[in-house]
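subagent[fold] <- orchestrator: predict structure for attached chain, return tokens only, no commentary.
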Amino acid sequence: MGGRSREQRIGDFKGTPTEYSKYLEGLVRKLQRELEYFHQKYQSTAPVQHPPSTQLSFTEPAVGQFIFQIENPESQAGKFKASTEPAIISEFLQRVPVDEDGWSKRRDYVQLCKPEELLHTFRLLTRLSRKSCSFDIGHKLDDKESILDVLRDYGRFANALGAHKVYATQISNYGTLLFICLSIVARKTGAKPEVVDEHIKKFLMRQQEKCDAGSEYLTRLRTAALWPVKQMNELYRKGLKHRAWEMFVLCGPSIHFYKKLALVDTEEVTSRVVICEPPEGEVQADVPFDITFLTKIILGERCSLDQINKALGTDLREETFNTWFEALSRRTESISKSLPCKRRKLLQEDGNSSTEASSDQDVCLTPRTTATDSTQYGEILGEMGTAIIGKFPHWTGLPPDERNNERGVLVYGSSGQHGGSEATGYRVEDSEADFMDKNTLPSTYVNTILHMDIDMSTNIRAMGLDMFDSE
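subagent[fold] -> orchestrator:
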């Protein structure tokens, strides 16, 4: 085919690679018949028999022995990897730290170094607070919404993460990866594929201003999203631990670049990543950005952990999930106690709700550090805690002696449903039938959220948020 470029198809054929392969097979058969025709015509009209040394010889191929090779994606994978794989891997790995100093500088550059920055980002990615960012993208969905509602909403949210250059670029890349993984789970758990694909197209449309992607392209996109998920699992096992997912948060490229990396074997990358084993006590270990963990946090009880594992090809165990959940709760408590905030009184003695909330109802994309904003940030941490507990009303990650406590926590999140306050998201009063058993909650997390006076008849009354005391 001479100088024909790799991208150009014979006859400008339009269609899938499979359809193109069938077209080429038909074309080859047609050429074979023409060759046989001219060979027979030549034999019948040749006037002179040439000597053997100069005679043109046409050997008719035996039936079933005609061999030809059709280009297809599978056969091309090896060629592609052989010629461009090193460059792709190098481009991806050039930003990945190789020593402690590199990890420290990269975290500082992306603004994911301090505990409050990590928790702020966790809250952003999981949308545990309706005060997610300063963009007007609507209220966070409550747990009554379907998985497709979550998918649609998260697509809008991930598109909104584009305000602050470095931090937002990395978080937007990771948020996009998480969005595609959510779409995979949605399809695997019974959502209509065409509806899921439509949500992805709308997402791409908002990112690129146009989208004519077909189902085949979207399939490749989902396949690409599973590549970093697999890498995280392998690198975690090899000793990189929490830095396995942190590597993709800090250094992860766009979802479109993953389409190229998806052609690379896992071992080709994991063997080249420097396993800089993290020291004990790193705050990053307490705020898990593992894709499976985040997906479960976002979807709550809409999907089981087992369903998510099967959809994403992961194997996050229940006990590991509980351990991470517990670490996250302790870190939230530790940060919130260090904030110089006033006590937030949620309920006066007459039963009327009152707060000392800031007039600013939005939270900027990056965490604030001023004394004024710390009050609001502490309130949001409490809202985050209430929301995350609300997603897992039956969570029993700690032993019974740790779960037994004299305090309850209300399970309603920030949407204000079931009579909760729109300003705070906390439920003011409820009956025994409507709140969760306090013995199913870990004490470390209960103490983080609300102090409650338990009325042994039918009422629970919220008195204040001790975690925001400066006294």
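orchestrator: received. Logging for downstream: The chain is about 50% helix and 0% strand. The CA atoms of residues 306 and 315 lie 8 Å apart.
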